[in-house]
Specification:
3-stranded antiparallel beta sheet, globular, ubl conjugation pathway, Rad60/SUMO-like_dom, isopeptide bond, Ubiquitin-like_dom
Length: about 55
C-alpha cells in the first residue's frame, strides 16, 4: 500500500481520491496479497474517486 501511496503522490493524487479493486472486489488498506489470494501477474484495478453529478 505504501508503494501505491508514493506513486499516487508522484502523479498528483492522494489516496483519498483513488480506489483499488481486485477481481471486482474493493481492496482495503489492511488487505495483503495472501488474504486476497493473489498470484504472480494478477492485476489490480485503480479508479479515481468521482463525486458530484446529478440524478436524472
Amino acid at each position: 500500500y505504501k508503494a501505491y501511496n508514493e506513486k499516487m503522490l508522484k502523479i498528483g493524487l492522494s489516496m483519498r481520491q483513488i480506489r483499488f479493486r481486485f477481481d471486482g472486489q474493493p481492496i482495503n488498506e489492511t488487505d495483503t496479497p495472501s488474504q486476497l489470494e493473489m498470484e504472480d501477474e494478477d492485476t489490480i484495478d485503480v479508479f479515481q474517486q468521482q463525486t458530484g453529478g446529478s440524478s436524472l
